[in-house]
Amino acid sequence: MKITVIGLGYLGATHAVAMAELGHEVIGIEPDDKKRSALESGKLPFFEPGLDKALVDVIEKGRITFKADHDENSKNAELHFICVGTPQKQGSNAADTKYLFAAIESLAPYLSEDAVVVGKSTVPVGTAAELKKALSEKTDFDPKLAWNPEFLREGTALEDSLRPDRIVIGTEDSFAEAKIREVYKPITDAEETPVLITDIPTAELVKAAANSFLATKISFINAMAEIAEVSGADTVKLAEAIGMDDRIGKLFLRNGIGFGGGCLPKDIRGLMARAEELGVGHAVGFLEEVDQINLRRRKRVVELAQAELGELKNKKIAILGATFKPDSDDLRDSPALDIALELERLGAIVFVHDPVAVPHLKENQKTLNADENLETVLEDAELTILGTEWRQYKNLDPSKLSVANKTIIDGRNVLDRNAWEAAGWKMIALGRG
């Protein structure tokens, strides 16, 4: 099939490459010259394991082209996937949907009557109806619009695209449903992936609901950590115990410094804002506390640093990891970066190491001392903090690390406590009184 993918950020670039991998002819629409040029040359404007090689492969096979805007070729596309960003509005919890409407406006002159517009962006429920109205005003026919939410995880995005655990299609139009089923047929035939057909509002709500549930689960175990720290309980063992209950499960039950990134924080806040607009804000009022618990875990690390070092001014602190999760260069709403910046604000001399994000830190966080050399970061450190659970940190040999003071705060509860303590380190782990 011939398709367009509009917006080539993290979601769009991944989806475009995945569709080309499946054998479709893909036109990627991206007005940002720098981003588009990088993709044209086979380079990703972000870090995502495996996606870079797949991009080069589909370029060499001629399955993908990149354009700044639509042209006559777009008129022949059977599906138009909208993958633009919906960031949190400045000074508000609500999602900013202006890029969606800009995408609709640019597409309208090139939309054929038998093409289907498919939204993949995470949006406030009810957005699709507004988009269809805007599109109808710019065409002389009734446009077909459906919603197909994404469920990508940074670090495994290509795998999640090619082998998803479900495909949700929001539409009540049989023609649109058939077209979307056709584009995913290589996946559903090979993987027997379940396809769930819903109305459009349900499909719009799926991603925000899923992320809100996951965020709640993380904040729940972090709330238990607050109790554990004053009662002497061990939240790691607690999570293991309750995770053995099949009704609960162990995933997303590891306590630490909490969640971040461009999805979970934004999506729970966006859901709260949309619920308020719909007059049912009370239904998700608990998400406010989910958000606050998450933020308190970051403050807790700063408090522990102050308890260990007293006055932080001119004390060197080493931070291991800056991204919100491993296998990603995403610094958005990163708990590790937030902690580093707060310690720096309080006068500490903060050195940060990260396997992939140091160039971004040097460009965007110039007050921090970001270095790709781990030894430089650790040298003379009076306190070390694990902020991101990169595998290389979990595999460190604590007996070979040279610091001024062998004290580490394990912000992710992933280090081997016995091994570190045997090597002479004092380990402080969240939620383990």
Structure description:
- Helix 1 crosses helix 3 and helix 9 packs parallel to helix 12 (286-309).
- The chain is built from 17 helices and 14 strands.
- With 433 residues, it is of the alpha/beta class.
- It is globular and about 70 Å long.
- The protein starts with a strand and ends with a strand.
- It has helices spanning 10-21, 33-40, 51-60, 98-107, 127-136, 157-162, 174-183, 185-191, 200-231, 235-243, 264-277, 286-309, 335-345, 358-364, 374-378, 391-394, 417-422; strands at residues 2-6, 25-29, 64-67, 79-82, 116-119, 144-147, 167-170, 195-198, 316-320, 349-353, 369-370, 383-386, 407-410, 426-429.
Q: What top-tier CATH class of the largest domain fits best? A: Alpha Beta
Provide the number of structural domains: 2
What is CATH's topology name of the largest domain? Answer: Rossmann fold
Total helix count?
Answer: 17
CATH homology group of the largest domain: NAD(P)-binding Rossmann-like Domain
The beta-strand count equals 14
Task: List descriptors.
13% strand; Rossmann fold; 6-stranded parallel sheet; 17 helices; alpha/beta; 433 residues
Write the layout of secondary structure elements.
Layout: E1 2-6, H1 10-21, E2 25-29, H2 33-40, H3 51-60, E3 64-67, E4 79-82, H4 98-107, E5 116-119, H5 127-136, E6 144-147, H6 157-162, E7 167-170, H7 174-183, H8 185-191, E8 195-198, H9 200-231, H10 235-243, H11 264-277, H12 286-309, E9 316-320, H13 335-345, E10 349-353, H14 358-364, E11 369-370, H15 374-378, E12 383-386, H16 391-394, E13 407-410, H17 417-422, E14 426-429
Parallel strand pairs: 1-2, 1-4, 2-3, 4-5, 5-6, 7-8, 9-10, 9-12, 10-11, 12-13, 13-14
Helix pairs in contact: 1-3, 9-11, 9-12, 12-13
